[in-house]
Backbone:
């Protein structure tokens, strides 16, 4: 399955259901990046994939428990090698997943990662981050682009969904990672994403058609 062949149809489909807006003030550092974003719902990875303002060879990482729990998901993941499944939601992703991510980043691919580790359906709040995004960045010297997704906790027809792309976080490649360095950079990333979603409030509307979209997947 070629990622590029599904981007335009996917974008048209989502834009026919929701009102998607992308805000970007700073230029992107290149095609080899780590995209780190908050996570509310099933639509989040699709927004990044279909509406990212640059061509990327994108990898995805997520827990096997949540992402390979149905027949159609297993069918999809077997046919798209860019989806890397981890053994658990939080902490060590497993030897194979870890190596696959590092090899992909070093070869020029990009990574989408949700540092919260799981979907948290409350607008305007960010849960504690795992260290994965920072760890992969330090190991490979890949810049991290913080993204704030707003409006995706509750979904309905023609809901306004916002993708706010922040200033890249540039980290130096390090052969030895210090725990203090990891913690400081992780907190910086969390603050950047928190700033991107700060001030957002769901619109007050009289009707919310097709509210079942919230729990579609």
Residues:
């Amino acid at each position: 399955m070629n990622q590029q062949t599904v981007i335009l149809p996917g974008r048209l489909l989502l834009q026919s259901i929701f009102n998607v807006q992308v805000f970007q003030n700073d230029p992107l550092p290149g095609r080899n990046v780590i995209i780190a974003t908050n996570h509310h719902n099933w639509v989040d990875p699709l927004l990044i994939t279909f509406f990212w303002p640059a061509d990327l060879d994108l990898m995805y990482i997520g827990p096997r428990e949540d992402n390979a729990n149905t027949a159609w998901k297993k069918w999809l993941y077997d046919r798209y090698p860019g989806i890397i499944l981890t053994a658990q939601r939080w902490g060590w992703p497993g030897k194979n997943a870890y190596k696959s991510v590092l090899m992909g980043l070093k070869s020029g691919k990009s990574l989408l990662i949700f540092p919260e580790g799981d979907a948290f359906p409350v607008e305007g709040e960010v849960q504690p981050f795992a260290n994965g995004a920072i760890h992969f960045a330090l190991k490979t010297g890949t810049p991290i682009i913080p993204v704030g997704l707003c409006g995706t906790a509750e979904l309905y027809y023609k809901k306004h969904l916002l993708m706010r792309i922040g200033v890249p976080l540039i980290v130096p490649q390090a052969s030895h990672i210090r725990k203090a360095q990891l913690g400081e950079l992780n907190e910086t990333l969390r603050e950047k994403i928190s700033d991107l979603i700060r001030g957002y409030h769901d619109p007050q509307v009289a009707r919310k058609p097709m509210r079942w979209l919230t729990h579609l997947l």
Remarks:
- The chain has a mean pLDDT of 86.
- The longest strand covers residues 144-150.
